[in-house]
Structures are given as structure tokens and as C-alpha cells.
Amino acid sequence: MKYPRDAFIRRLLSSCPVLEDLFVVKCRGDNVACLVVRVPSLKFLTVRTTAEVDYHQGLVLDVPSLEFLDIVDYTDGFCLVENSMHKVVEAHLDVTYSHPQQLLASLTSLVQLSLCLTTSMDAHFDGTIFRQLEQLKVCTCETTEWLDLLMRLLKAAPNLRFIVLELSKFHGIRTGDPILGWNQPSRVPECLLSTLEYFDWRQYGGTEEEKQVARYILGNFGRLGLATFYPKSTNPVKNLQMLKELSMSPRRSSVCRVEFCGNYSSVSK
């Protein structure tokens, strides 16, 4: 549908004073360059920008009662938060915003977060602490940046209990980009030592950098009970060899169990 202008959507939403759940699909030619959502009663918001949209999109949020947020936007646009969103407990963000800091800084009450940012290096969390965050999922599609993003989040979330690393089925690894070396942090994040209990790495490739990251995780998780690796390769011989190497990695937690799940008999140690 093509709307008269951006203001039409603002007026439409303002006429819904008890609206609690909103699902928006932004399409090419809809004549809405900046979506403004000012709905005090809104609790659930999902925004999808279709792949055909090839120009920058804007999103402005004034939703003080929001509890759930889900955004997919690959237009290199922006998101501006006008008022606190301290009630949001679950967020799924798959965006290419050039400056996502303000959006992330407004979500400090999160308990569950799923994140894919192509601008990970710019997503600094200085002063932002996710004290209530317990479940974190980070997409590994951007091999030059996701590791930096993960380490920043670990430092900012002292009470994490569950981490998932996964390459989204809708994404791919960029070709031609340099892969950054693994730089071990000088200080182990608090959550690794005291709160983290479960770790899943899906589509684990077994590259040298990935091995170093996995060894670091296994060697520093103080309370980790289970670490599960799902290999990317479909070669059973390669998988078995690759994952047996990890089974012999030193572990800080005496109760930590490592499981390997692939196209061979499951190996557990």
C-alpha cells in the first residue's frame, strides 16, 4: 500500500489509544521514509523492511510501555528512541544501522537479546550495563566483527546464563573481507567466571581463530555445565577430528560437559 506521506502513519497510530501489538512490513514504494511510532499503550512491536527497499529508512520510537521489540532492517538507516524503553525484556535486532548505540543503550532492562549488527566495531557499550540480561544470541555472519561484538556484550552483561553463537539461515559470510585475528582480552568478563551455565556454538567451522575462541571460553567459564558444538562441515571424519580436539581443551569448571552434535555418532566428554 502507498501512503500519502509519513504523517499519515503517525495520525493513524495516534487514533489507536489502546493498541498493544503492532506488526509493520515496510515495502518499496510505500512512501514512508521515516516510520514514527508514538503509542503509549504499545507492548509488542515488530518491524520488517523488505529486501526490495534500496534507500535509507528511519525509525522513531516513543513507546514507554513496550515489552517486546523485533526489528529487521538492512537499509543502512537509523533508529531514534525518544523516551525510555525500560520495560523491554526481549529484543531481536537484525539491522545495518550505522550508529546503533542509542537503541542499545535504551534496552538496559533486557532479559533476552538476539543480535546481528554489521557495524559491530562501532557498537560501543561504554557506560551501558545489561544487568538483567540472561540469554544472549549473536549472529556470526559478519566474521570480521561478531567476535568484537560478543566480547563487548560479555563485559556489559555480568549476569549472563546462556549464550548461543549461530549463523542465521538468512545470512551468509561475506567473501573477500579480511578475518581478524583473535585477541584474547586482558581481563576475563565477570559473567564467564561466575554466572554462565550453558553455551551453544552452531555451525562451528573449526578455523584456527574459532578454536582459540572456544578454548578461551572453555578455559574461563567458572560455572559452565554444558557446552554444545554443532559443526558446519558435513564430513563426519573431519567433524570427529575437529571436535575431539576441543574435548581435550582445559576447562575451568570441573562439572563442564562438552557435547558435539553432527552427522556422526554424538561424542561427549
UniProtKB/TrEMBL annotation:
InterPro entries: FBD (IPR006566), FBL13/AtMIF1-like (IPR050232), LRR_dom_sf (IPR032675). Pfam families: FBD (PF08387). SMART domains: FBD (SM00579). Gene3D superfamilies: Ribonuclease Inhibitor. Residues 190-261 form the FBD domain. It comes from the Eukaryota. PANTHER family: EMB|CAB62440.1-RELATED, F-BOX/RNI SUPERFAMILY PROTEIN-RELATED. This is (rape) hypothetical protein. It comes from Brassica napus. The lineage of its organism: Eukaryota, Viridiplantae, Streptophyta, Embryophyta, Tracheophyta. The gene is BnaA10g10620D.
